[in-house]
Amino acid sequence: MAAKSARTTGRDDAAAPMEALWQTDSPRAEDGPALVIDVQGFEGPLDLLLHLARSQRVDMARISVLALAEQYLRFIEQARVLRLEMAADYLVMAAWLAYLKSKLLIPKVPGDEGESGEELVAVLQFRLKRLEAMREAASKLVNRNRLGRDVFARGMPEIVVVEKKNRFSATLYDLLSAYATQRQRQAVSRVEIAQRSVWSLKEARVILRRMLGEMNDWTALDQFLIAFIPSARERATALASSFAASLELVREGKIEIRQEQPFSPLYMRVKPGASLDEETAGDV
Q1: What are 128-132's contacts with CB under 8 Å, separation 24+?
Q2: Are 53 and 60 in contact (CB under 8 A)?
Q3: N or C: which end of the chain has fewer CB within 10 A?
Q4: Residue range(s) of every CATH 1.10.10.580 domain in the chain
Q5: What are phi and psi of 247, to 5 degrees?
Q6: Strand 255-258, strand 267-270: pairing
Q7: What is the DSSP string of 252-276?
Q8: Per-residue model confidence as pLDDT tens digits over 108-140
Q9: Contacts of 228 (CB under 8 A, 6+ apart)
Q10: Is the domain covering 201-283 a CATH 1.10.10.580 domain?
Q11: Looking at 9-23, 168-182, 217-231, which range is the least confident one?
């Protein structure tokens, strides 16, 4: 803790009853006396002494504790017009400096659990650094420019124009793929299923009876159906139905079927002695 020059301000006796205890016949000074330490090896205010102790420019072991205490007591006796708390702070600082000096002079006893002189010096340095940082921060805050006094705000806000520039990185394949996707979304797909013409088994029996009643020799089945197949799409259903109908006629003993080898043309004729006229006429 650093000591500063003390200033006294005039107050009414009713407003400051505690200060009446310290009043004397001699008038108060406008400026309180500054604490000056005059010892061997150093002379200056207390805050400068602490600053030099922190930077280790002055050896604390060379300072006389007795002279230091006398300087403090003399100052407190002369500054009775100051507040009691301020005088107590000076005494606490003097006692702490005497304790620090004793720690530095007396060798450390083994088993002593108290703080060493080096640790106390480190604590003092830390407190002084923190005090210095707070003073620097306060000074910077006070010296900063104030809005409305040192700096002024603009009148109308400035219009900020934002320009956007598009940059394309797509390849030709990406463009074609995107175009095809859009076309597929817009295209209307309409599926029409054509009705297939299917021969029934009954129709195939009637057609075979008519054709076989006019031919007595072996004839290929494909030649029978040429006249009855109007389009190529009906060829499969005509062959399937005609083959099934021919198998039924063979089972009934009306016709005969032969095939020379697998997948070769299928030949058929009316069985000798059998007649299809009556059944054909009945179906018609």
Answers
A1: 128/50, 128/51, 128/54, 129/54, 131/2
A2: yes
A3: C
A4: 201-283
A5: -65, -35
A6: antiparallel
A7: TTSEEEE-SSTTSPPEEEEPTT---
A8: 777 777 777 778 777 777 877 787 788 889 899
A9: 207, 238
A10: yes
A11: 9-23
